[in-house]
Specification:
The chain folds into 2 domains: 5-196, 2-enoyl-CoA Hydratase, Chain A, domain 1 (Alpha-Beta Complex); 200-246, Lyase 2-enoyl-coa Hydratase, Chain  A, domain 2 (Orthogonal Bundle). Helices cover 49% and strands 15% of the residues. α3 (107-114) packs across α5 (141-149), α5 (141-149) packs across α6 and α9 (200-215) runs antiparallel to α10. It has 256 residues and is of the alpha/beta class. The chain binds 3-methylmercaptopropionate-CoA (MMPA-CoA). The site of 3-methylmercaptopropionate-CoA (MMPA-CoA) has 22 residues, from β5 and α4.
């Protein structure tokens, strides 16, 4: 794990690097278990995490060399292991920003789609080659990717092997940002600092409650929203921030 995943702390930001460039950061069991462990044990002082890849690509997805060895039951457990690990990323203690470049394909896209913000360098390309490999997604793509781009686009990606370049990927919702080649990490850190400066309850609600509201019916969703709004505004930190604005001491919208 230590070789395939490199972690570093900068102020209150956790940087997690996929470090298997010789295999294009293809994700084997050791790597996915490493991701689970890192995101299950984020130090309390961390306010935001960034995940990115060493070498020419973010990730070539599942390590295909391991696939041939599994029977159906082992395949089921393997897929559930990915679900567990990527749930740790999506529903952990801090928001996670994926900084992408080169291939973001198959399980690499599944990992990226478990993150809360995606920043893509211009070299990024997205694909779900599972269709062409004769398999199916198993790391959560069928749940997370349609939420980003819609059912029809994911179906097309898998049926036809369509590859989306960075700019088109942003246009359809695969990333929220596109930046110049080599500028991804700096952009990720800039965003992470903003994320980490939010009130804890706001980030918690965005990570843990908003996705549940989206998955629920309108009536339940509105009730969950009201409860969340009530809890958030009750916190001393929220009251202090509102007071700061009313006293003219807080930044206006759009001020740097
Ligand atoms: C790999 C993998 C891999 C590279 N598993 N070993 N993912 C895919 O179907 C994508 C397969 N990979 C590619 O299409 C290309 O490798 C890339 C476009 C990502 C990069 O191309 P390139 O020219 O930079 O690298 P390369 O020469 O193809 O690969 C370098 C080495 O990495 C080579 O090994 P080597 O020992 O010959 O040097 C490749 O075999 C190896 N490599 N990708 C294993 N994926 C939870 S379910 C998720 C299901 C999926 O993710 S399916 C999609 C899998």
């Amino acid at each position: 794990m230590k070789n395939y995943l490199h972690t570093e702390i900068q102020d209150n930001i956790l940087l997690v690097k996929l470090n298997r460039p010789e295999k294009r950061n293809a994700i084997n069991d050791e790597l996915i278990l490493g991701i689970e462990e890192v995101f299950a044990n984020i130090p309390a002082e961390i306010g935001c995490a960034i995940i990115y890849g060493e070498g020419k690509h973010f990730s070539a997805g599942l390590d295909l060399s391991s696939l041939t060895e599994r029977d159906a039951v082992q395949g089921l457990h393997h897929s559930r292991m990915w679900h567990r690990a990527l749930d740790r990323v999506q529903f952990g203690t801090v928001p996670v920003i994926a900084v992408l470049h080169g291939a973001c394909v198959g399980g690499g896209l599944e990992l990226a789609s478990a993150c809360h913000i995606r920043v893509a360098e211009t070299s990024t390309f997205y694909a779900l080659p599972e269709g062409q490999r004769g398999i199916f997604v198993g790391g959560g793509a069928s749940v997370r990717v349609p939420k980003l781009i819609g059912l029809a686009r994911m179906t097309d990606m898998m049926l036809t092997g369509r590859v989306y370049p960075a700019d088109e990927g942003m246009a359809i919702g695969l990333s929220q940002y596109v930046v110049e080649e080599g500028a991804g990490l700096a952009k990720g850190i800039e965003l992470a600092k903003k994320v980490a400066s939010n009130a804890g309850m706001t980030n918690y609600a965005l990570m843990h409650i908003l996705p549940r509201i989206v998955d629920s019916g309108q009536d339940q969703g509105l009730m969950m929203e009201s409860l969340t709004a009530a809890i958030a505004q009750d916190a001393p930190e929220a009251k202090a921030r509102l007071r700061e604005f009313l006293d003219g001491k807080a930044k206006k919208v759009g001020e740097a």
